Amino acid sequence: MTIDTKLPFDQEYVVNFSKENSEPAWLSELRINALASAEQLPLPKPDKTKINKWNFTQFDSHVVKSEIYQSLSELPEQAKALVDMDATNQSLYIQRNTTPAFLTISEELKANGVIFTDIFTAAREHGDLLQKYFMKNGVKVDEHKLTALHAALMNGGIFLYVPKNVEVKEPIQAIFVHDDASLNLFNHVIVVVEDNSKVTYVENYVSTVDSANGIFNIVTEVIANPNSKVQYGAVDTLAKGITTYVNRRGVANKDARIEWALGLMNDGNTISENTTNLMGDGSFGDTKTVVVGRGEQVQNFTTSVVHFGKHSEGYILKHGVMKDSATSIFNGIGKIEHGASKSNAEQESRVLMLSEKARGDANPILLIDEDDVTAGHAASVGRVDPLQLYYLMSRGIPKTEAERLVIHGFLAPVVQALPIEGVKKQLTAVIERKVK
Amino acid sequence: MAGSTLTIKELHVEIDGKEILKGVNLEVKGGEIHAIMGPNGTGKSTLSSAIMGHPKYEVTSGSIALDEQDVLEMEVDERARAGLFLAMQYPSEINGVTNADFLRSALNAKLGEGNEISLMKFIRTMDKQMDFLEMDQDMAQRYLNEGFSGGEKKRNEILQLMMLQPKIAILDEIDSGLDIDALKVVSKGINEMRGEEFGCLIITHYQRLLDYITPDFVHVMMQGRIVKSGGPELAQRLEAEGYDWIKQELGIEDETVGQEA
Ligand SMILES: Nc1ncnc2c1ncn2[C@@H]1O[C@H](COP(=O)(O)OP(=O)(O)O)[C@@H](O)[C@H]1O
Ligand SMILES: [Mg+2]
């Protein structure tokens, strides 16, 4: 079998699409060049997962226009569960398929000049600022076919910009609702936090359809400028049948901190890349990831922390539960570049297998090009410990409940790290549903 | 009838194909406290594990009954809900599950669907028992046994005992690794449970614990059998004279399992 490599959208389409959205010239140009690159460049090569037969490029629809939400009461139940319905002063963006469908911004954001808007509005109204960061130091257009295709066809996303010396207290939330089975989403989230500022951002990808055939190509860029702090939480729950490429990348400059808490709960085949580049001296990156695989899913989760700055610290913690015939590769990469002396790279990957047919593979990789550093890794793939079950059951807890406790406990360190209560509850509920 | 009765008859138990228990007979009734003493490696933990249903221990013959119920036919959790409790020599550590969540699940499993304890009442009861056992309140929110010191684990086992109120409890070396203050607290917990409704089997190899909890019966285990039984005076004699006189009396050279006389 060969997959048609011709892209379904041509330059004329891209030019028109950009024009319809009144995009600045730099973005139109970027898209046109990206489209040309997408035709040439190869697919990415996630270690240990072959994706050359996955469909990332053949699809029909590019824009799914949907009704906007006049009020939160119109949200689907799955989205309602994520938001504080009674809050009067929150910062919340909801995208419905490719349509920006709801936006509210707190007084706190307005008073401090924080920009929080959909990516099209950002391109129109804050074009110069966006251009400064868009696919520059984070994810680059020409990395491979999927980054290029992403740039050419970007059809959703947001821009969050926090100016200097602003500590945003309340978490900022985004929900991407997928309620149309024909959707193919090229979503771009870009978070820029200037010197000495702090922000917490949490996003959810929510499918309300049970299954679909779409392609989701998601890119996140987090730029943490000197001495800033970004907490980034995400829970992905995309439906069965969706093929997802999701690349979340952070750049931490001098003394900046980026902390990720990712609940990767898609039901379709997924390639997830999460990289933190510790560029500055004293920068800090922490990645916590939980995953549940079920059904016939094939997934690859590659988490990297790359140290460039001296005294930089990187931590990776990944816990995955695999059931049915699900297959997952967990690659953890701690890379210390030459010159990043006194740095510390730690990682831990644990996989819990709930069935004989499930497959899980934890690969810790340390690539160290500097002498004066510390590094460590721990990895394991195992089953639920029968002695733990015995202990719980010896107190009267039935076996299924005992297993449930052990599994939730196993995933708890990441669930607990999510900064929004509703999202935490939601993730717990999703895990509950998936491991049953 | 006051309390329940645990009856063990001619119990033989194997682990990994090796016979450890070679015909144990024992009856523990509500209101009674029994102590099983004996040197290391004589089968005491094997007995307690077999009663609770540890997956590695295989009962090859004999019977265990709780009143009229055949314990060997029950799953581990059913045994617990029927009223058995084992304070383990080495309790498991369970990451991510708080002590409080665990105990509430256990209590609710016992009370059954529709009869669950309210959260408020649960917290009040747990607080009270933790105070009684002089445990830090933050132990409720710590992950189950994770990073607990030896003494904290043992106290936590007694906390579970007091919360779950079983009919028959087996305490396997609940005294090992405890300093004298902790030993007093643990004994206080066990004595609090004492009553017509509660039967207890205390496994220890020190007389020390029995200074605080006076047993009604004392048994000595060697080579996977109970080789001698008596009253509290037996424990005192063991403390004073050690086990050699029993070995001489019975012609045993090596008391551990697998060394036939
Ligand atoms: N998991 C095990 N695997 C193999 N042998 C065991 C195991 N547990 C106990 N044994 C053996 O069974 C015998 C009795 O052990 P145990 O019941 O733990 O004794 P006690 O509690 O009296 O010290 C010992 O010889 C010990 O080596
Ligand atoms: Mg023992």
TrEMBL record, chain A:
Pfam hit, one: SUFBD_core
GO biological processes: iron-sulfur cluster assembly
Domain of life of the native organism: Bacteria
All copies of domain SUF system FeS cluster assembly SufBD core, residue ranges: 179-410
Residue ranges occupied by any SUF system FeS cluster assembly SufBD N-terminal domain in the UniProt entry: 26-173
Xref: SUPFAM superfamilies: Stabilizer of iron transporter SufD
Stored InterPro entries: Fe-S_cluster_assembly_SufBD, SUF_FeS_clus_asmbl_SufBD_core, SUF_FeS_clus_asmbl_SufBD_sf, SUF_FeS_clus_asmbl_SufD, SufBD_N
Family membership: Belongs to the iron-sulfur cluster assembly SufBD family.
PANTHER family in UniProt: FES CLUSTER ASSEMBLY PROTEIN SUF, UPF0051 PROTEIN ABCI8, CHLOROPLASTIC-RELATED
Protein name, UniProt field: Fe-S cluster assembly protein SufD
Organism expressing this protein natively: Pseudoneobacillus rhizosphaerae
Automatic annotation (TrEMBL), chain B:
Residue ranges occupied by any ABC transporter domain in the UniProt entry: 6-248
GO molecular function: ATP binding; ATP hydrolysis activity
Matching Gene3D superfamilies: P-loop containing nucleotide triphosphate hydrolases
Pfam families xref list: ABC_tran (PF00005)
Keywords assigned: ATP-binding, Nucleotide-binding
Stated family: Belongs to the ABC transporter superfamily. Ycf16 family.
Record's protein name: Vegetative protein 296
Originating organism: Pseudoneobacillus rhizosphaerae
Gene name as annotated: sufC
